[in-house]
Amino acid sequence: MNQTRGILFIVLAVLSFLLFQAYIQDTAPKPQIDSVTAAQDPNNVGADSDNSHALTIKNNVLRLTINSKTGDFIGADLLKYDRTVEDKTPLTLLSSNPDDYLRVVNGLAGEGGTDSAKTRADYKVVNQTENSVTLSYTHNDVVYTKTITLDGYQALVDYKVTNNSDQAINVAPYASFIYRPAPAPSLFSRSNVYGTNQSYAGLVISTDSDNYEKISNGDIEDKDFKPVKSKEGWTAISQHFFVTAYVPYAGTDFTIYTDYYQNNYIINTLSAETTVNANSTATFSDKYWIGPKLQDDLQNVAKDLDLVVDYGWAWFLSLPLFKLMQFLHSFISNWGITIIALTLVVRLIISPLSRLQFRNQALMRVIQPELAAANERAGDDRMKRLTETTKVFKKYGASQFTGCFPALIQMPIFLALFYLMNEAVELRHQSFLWIHDLSQADPYFILPILNGVIMIFMFSLTPMPENMDPMQRKIMKMMPYLFVIFFLFLPSGLILYYIVSNIITILFIMYYNKKMTYLYANNLLPTYKVVDRPIAMPRRKK
């Protein structure tokens, strides 16, 4: 495999990957939109859709709207994240909007809980501050106190059950996510709320048996998801760049089960019942994360919660690349310049292999006259042609494979960066020059076209072999133009990386082309004595 065929293989592999991504988008189920009704879970614990009891608590990053009667979360706004590039209102993560419906129903189930098959709690506000509220409800000589406190993007829910009756009661904390998916977003940032639809959106759970499992909407609709019991873990609704997660009370086991009701997807997490004896008190503490996918913070909320930043199969490369980019940004204020710096560092790390690749590529270029002469001497004898060309390769220490394998390293790095640029919320709405959002496609197509021009020039520096297959030659000539088309819809940050990387490649090619040409012309290239050896034939077994 020569250098040109190596490039062709890599390009075709990347294009196949991009085509697969496009196929996934086209075949993804489109959500049905109709009027939102109050959903009910299989335990008949319904969601109170009455917003007349709404109250709001907030801190500097999160504004949470709560139904003061039930304690449900019926709205959440992220104060540090704009809805779109042009719409500077806070992004809404929990909402009753029919186009993007997500609310959190929570409380105490069980025989002695606040929510039964027939009724729900009727809390009263007993105390409220800017970032917390305390609700109280008394029923059958049992006092239920529910305190909701904001801590960054966390909503901490503390239940206190004071049993003043003469009988023991059983209670079980629970939380239900009731949602319907948002319509497929625009490819371009000006009309984009959450981000491209390259990223997974939907239910994710973490249990003892699987620390990160995606549950498709189809499985929920078809009732294919079977209840899962676990001692630790969490449930989450993942959206591009953002996540709403529930971490159950750590004192008991919990069970996750799902339902589908009037176009609403329902995910229930129910803890095991706890007995509260007569004339005694019990407390329970749940927590929620309602905010961006900040990896370092998510690690501190719950074990494996940072996995909602889904790097796919390339996580082992994407994660260190993200850490490196994060480190570089601590010294550089602009994310666009950070990506350029990241490119320089990555290319520096792989420079020893790049040196082998481009030196060999330039060497193959300058010895083309001797290879052509060897082919002419061999005539139509293919075996002799192979022998003669091999002699030329050995004479100069050239290899048809040295230029290929280093180039293969670029492919997993490219795919790892593809996932990284799609998942890093830090790049959302970050501008660079004319780019409004480095996590989204260039709305003016300047970067993809510029990258295409650079690739055309780069390919011109590496002439294709004269004996190359005509079909391969045509495909190679089309590659830069195909890349322009496919890069139209990729994150601007990824194309910026690719442009800088291609410029570095061009500098490498020009340097080694000039150096090898000079050394060859002045007979300064090292040569090696070629020893003719007969081809060893396999021995017949006696």
Please count the helical segments: 12
Q: Give the strand content.
A: 15-25%
Task: Name the overall outline.
Answer: elongated
Ends apart, CA distance between termini: 37 Å
What CATH architecture label of the largest domain applies?
A: Distorted Sandwich
Helix amount: 25-40%
The radius of gyration is: 31 Å
Strand order of the main beta sheet, please?
A: 6-7-8-9-19-15-14-11-12
Subunit structure: Interacts with the Sec translocase complex via SecD. Specifically interacts with transmembrane segments of nascent integral membrane proteins during membrane integration.
Family: Belongs to the OXA1/ALB3/YidC family. Type 1 subfamily.
Main location: membrane
Subcellular location: Cell inner membrane; Cell membrane
Describe it.
One of its GO terms (biological process) is protein transport. Residues 335-513 form the Membrane insertase YidC/Oxa/ALB C-terminal domain. Keywords: Cell membrane, Chaperone, Membrane, Protein transport, Transmembrane, Transmembrane helix, Transport. Residues 55-324 form the Membrane insertase YidC N-terminal domain. It is a single chain. The longest helix is centred in the C-terminal third of the chain and has 30 residues, at 492-521. A hairpin with a 2-residue loop joins strand 7 (132-139) and strand 8 (142-151). The protein is α+β, with helices and mostly antiparallel strands and 542 residues long. The strands form 3 sheets. A 9-stranded antiparallel beta sheet has the order 6-7-8-9-19-15-14-11-12. It has 12 helices and 19 strands. It folds into 2 domains: 43-310, Beta-galactosidase, Chain A, domain 5; 319-522, no CATH class. Helix 1 packs across helix 11 (470-487), helix 4 crosses helix 5 (335-349) and helix 10 runs parallel beside helix 12.
